[in-house]
Amino acid sequence: EGTVSTGGTHGIQVVNTGTGNSSVRTADVVGGEIAGVLVFTGDTTINSEVDTSEGFLTAGATGVNHIAIGQGDATTKTGIVSAEGRGVRAVKLGATGDNTVDTTTGSVRAGDDGIDARLQTDGALRVTTANVTSQNGRGIFAEGAGSEVSLDTSAGVVTAGGAYAIEVDNIGSGATSLRTANVEGGSSAGV
After folding, report:
1. Distance between CA atoms of 118 and 127, rounded to whole angstroms?
2. How far apart, in whole angstroms, are the C-alpha atoms of residue 155 and residue 44?
3. What are phi and psi of 166, to 5 degrees?
4. How far apart are CA 178 and CA 101, in angstroms?
5. Is the pLDDT of residue 30 over 70?
6. What is the C-alpha separation between 165 and 2, in angstroms, rounded?
7. What sign for the dihedral angle of Cα 69, 160, 35, 79?
């Protein structure tokens, strides 16, 4: 319990270039001009987890910025997120591993893309959300280059003021699965 509050660059910044796992769990985070929570794991690390689901997070450019290059899986769970730029950015790079994003505990509200989730390994990209709102960008952008791309927004409404409320790019070899409830906005297409 408790609140991390800052007027600096990041509310929480964690960099792991070692050989073990990374796990970051927080309650409320207020502030951070660049990111409310920034977590970066290098190519020698294994699993990387970020969990802000027990509180709310407000930030400037990005609410949660999770970049994992390790050999294991990346998991990002959030509660309420509000950001002037991107709400949640979760990127998995490296040779192997899945990228899982779960924002069903709360809502994501952003000035730019609500959720930006990417996978550049042979694993699976799985994104599950409740309400996601983007004022000027995409509600959700999901791009996977691995074995599976799965997006489930059925627990809420995706609203966007940009070109697409939901954009899914599967540039890998596996299947694409998309399940939605209400999708609103998108000047070019809802999905």
Report:
1. 10
2. 36
3. -135, 130
4. 14
5. yes
6. 34
7. negative
Full-prediction pTM beyond 0.85?
yes
DSSP class of 20: S
- 5 pLDDT band, cuts 50/70/90, is confident
Q: How many CA atoms lie within 13 A of 101 on its CB side?
A: 33
Coil, strand or helix at 65? strand
**Looking up tokens 């490296």, which residue turns up?**
94
Tokens at 74, concatenated: 């990346």
Q: Do 63 and 36 contact (CB within 8 A), yes or no?
A: yes
pLDDT the model gives residue 188: 85
What SS3 state is found at 38?
strand
User: What is the DSSP secondary structure assignment for residue 164, as one 8-state letter?
Assistant: B
Residue with tokens 């209400």: 182
Instruction: Look up residue 48 and give its DSSP letter.
Output: E
Rounded Cα–Cα distance for residues 113 and 136 (Å): 7
Q: Which pLDDT does position 1 carry in this prediction? A: 66
Residue 30 Ramachandran class (φ > 0 left, ψ -120 to 50 alpha, else beta) = beta
Tokens (6 digits) for 138: 């995409």
DSSP string, 68-125: E-SSS-EEEEEEEEEESSEEEEEEE-SSS--EEEE-TTS-EEESS-SEEEEE-SSSEE
